[in-house]
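Thread: quick sanity check before group meeting

JM: Hey all, I'm pulling together slides for Thursday and realized we never actually wrote out the predicted structure for the chain we discussed last week. Dropping the sequence here so it's in one place. If anyone has concerns about the input, flag it before I start.
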Amino acid sequence: MSSSSSQRKVLTLVAALLGWLFDGFEMGLFPLIGQPALKDLLSHAAASDSDVNKWFGATIAVFLVGAASGGVLFGWLGDKMGRVRAMSISILTYAIFTGACGFATEAWQVAALRFVASLGMGGEWSLGVALVNEVWQAKSRSVTAGLIGAAANVGYLLASLVSMIVLGHLTSIQGGLQSIGIPGSAVAYLISHSAWRLLMISGALPALLTFGVVFFVPESEKWKAEHARGATAHWARADLMGVVIGSIAALVIIWAWSPAGIEAGINALGATAITITGLGIALVGYLHPVRKYLQRAVAAGTLSPDHGASIVKFMLFGAALAAVALLGTWGSTQWAPKWVVTLEPDPSKYAKEWTLFWLSVGAIVGTMGAALAAGHFGRRITYAVLCVGSIGASLLLYQCNTSYGGFFLFSTFVAGALTASFYGFFPLYLPELFPTAVRATGQGFAYNFGRIAAAVGGLQTANLMKVFNNSFPKAASCMVGIYVVGMFIVWLGPETKGQALPD
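JM (edit): ok, ran it. Output follows.
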């Protein structure tokens, strides 16, 4: 291997890992600051804890819909204009709009800004995975897939550490900000309510990474070869209207289950009908750009009709796998830092931060282990075993803990290791399902459309809590039953162990 080739591979991996790290950092912020932020923003409305829970779930759901839309949108950009340029735009998007959340004055503004930020986060995953898999050789893909999943969880861990440092040194931070000329009233505004505004503003820092991506990371040679032979010319901007319509349909679903929908008189039956209709519209809309691309590619003779049909089939299969894993995470374990406050309300013990810390440490171990296991034992058996393990780990956390302490943190480590392990599995398996010309869009749809299903399902966590007399452990334990579905559907897909990445 030449030194230039080796340098190119290292630069690509480092840039992508940093992108995922800060992606994870920004995703990890909301579980920590969501409750104090929403209580602050809803204080004028005298909102109850139930209202805060609904807004918390709705904000997470809106984030997931945005990530799904961004996965298709930026995946389209990556297949059309190149992985690197599109990834730069995606990072800039999530950095700026996460930082803007710190200036929100209403709960709905946080949800709206998180939606736009998540467009970039969903896109960054799709583009970075495609780029790294196209640059690194097959024998290295298990390791790089594990690093991809681990990097995002290092970001979660970083979010917990930054939160503890900020909350533990508020007086020093206040003095430091005033010493550089920021008015005392502005400083008080930034650090009030557990400094949630200051922490969100810190999310803008990854924008600096954009410049490194632009100037130092080379474009994928596989993509350039596809571009040279004209395969990327079959993408059309007009097709993105399908993504817009799909996003609107998904957001209407979120609205129907949110406090705003309830206030508008939408009952459970109406919300269910809206959900079924909206999911159908969203599915057709998100698939639209790829289907139109495939029609043009088949007509031009650059793709066979059978190959085109298999691409759509694998997109749907990948979305089903992702929906199981994402719903299991966002419907249960993502709520753990919020839940632990009911077990240990003393903020000086940093229960939320330590919970996220050990979830993240477990996830780092789990993502690396899952990728290596899939590389050694095979993709399908690994996914099925991870589903079984996730059920056991989640029940350990939610049914065997009634107080905050050492065993609770051990349980969070185990739950993090198993339920987050899929995020090391997907960067290995999903790219193997799609050819280069549609890889970013195909895997972006597969992984991120699963987020819409997770968003809809995750909204039911708050509703399940009502059924179980506001018991989050019972609601979360019910949600993890989704892993049973994953144990069976994974066998409907191909086993790609030992196969080269499709051209």
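AS: nice. Residues 166 and 173 are 7 Å apart (CA to CA). The mean pLDDT is 85.
JM: adding both to the slides.
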